[in-house]
Structures are given as C-alpha cells and as structure tokens.
Amino acid sequence: MKPNLLVLLPNLNDRIAIRKLQKAHLERTGDGSFYIMPPVVIIGYTDKKGVDRKKFNISLEFESKATKTDLGYIFKTDLRMLQEKYSACGPSGLFFTRDKEPKALDLKILNTYSLALLESSEEGYLLLQ
Question: What distance in Å separates the CA atoms of residue 49 and residue 52, rounded to the nearest whole number?
C-alpha cells in the first residue's frame, strides 16, 4: 500500500477553478485520471494517520509546466518549510492528472488552504480524510 499524502486543500472557489481546468484537459485529451483525488496541493508523503484541519493563508506560485512524478503530473511549488514542519517528503505541488501531460498553465490562484490528509486505500486510490 502507498503512504498517505499530506495536502493543502484549497478554498471552494479555487477547487472549482482547478476542476474546470482539469475538465478542459479531459475534453482535449480524454484523460480523466485526475478523478483519483480531489483538487489539492500536495505537501508530500507522510506516515501520519490524521491531522488537525489547520487553516493557512499563504500565496503559492506554481511552475507553469507540469512535472511527471510517481503520482502523476503536478505543477510544482516549494513547500519545503511545510514538509519539514510536518515530516513529509517527496514531490510537492498542485496535482493535476495522472496519465497525460497537461499543457502549460499560468496558475496565480490559491491563497487560503486547509491542512488535510489523503489516505491510501488498498486499491491504491486516495480518499480525503
């Protein structure tokens, strides 16, 4: 089984905006693999089984080109400070899709987040906890 993921859950308006971008990707490519997890910014892998739903008001800048990781394509951002604080490791950034590379995006959204945990299930799907 895969380790759990510590994530930042964007506010509702930003989650809706991200889903619209993902659905446009689906229409262009037929790739709906983004449905494996909600629109989140990944902090990293963790052994944690639960987290306090702490709120953060931070602005994040994302690379405009997606990077392929073992999770799929993410738009990277620097979250080393949060990785150190919460003992998380691995790639950090906005999860976009698993299978097909998305086009470059100019992401200047996202500034209010809640800390959350995506729990790995035996089937390999991630469930928001």
Answer: 11
